[in-house]
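Quick log. Single chain, no ligands specified.
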Amino acid sequence: MENITKWKILENYKTNQNIEFLERKQQSNQRIFKHLSHRVDYLNLKMSAIEVMFIMKARFDLLGLNGNRFGENVEKKCSFCSSNLIEDSFHLVGKCSKYRDLRMELLGKRELNEQEITDVLDGKKCSWKSLSQFIKKSLDIRKSLIG
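-> predicted structure:
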């Protein structure tokens, strides 16, 4: 009986995540959402809640990066590379030169093109676990540099 209840809770959560994701995708002007599928199969894996949280935050572009800050005098560009690009999940996962070695180690390439970034964030190019580890480690590096 308890397993059935857990299964129903997980199914309800997945359904709600799909609905929320699709609504956000339709309302978003951000490049990330326009190309991502509404897959939530990472919820079925044996990963910790923290690992799932990193995946969700990356996919929803909620990592607290410069590109997501608000205000008149807020710098949205990446503070760690000279690319002059907005620092968002897309930039962090595929472009920022600060994370090239980590990207190579966990995602298999030093830099990713737009389609590869989308594939990574969709769980197609690497495992969900690798994406979660990459996000965690890159945020740790970022935090150590900011202080």
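Residues 2-146 form one domain.
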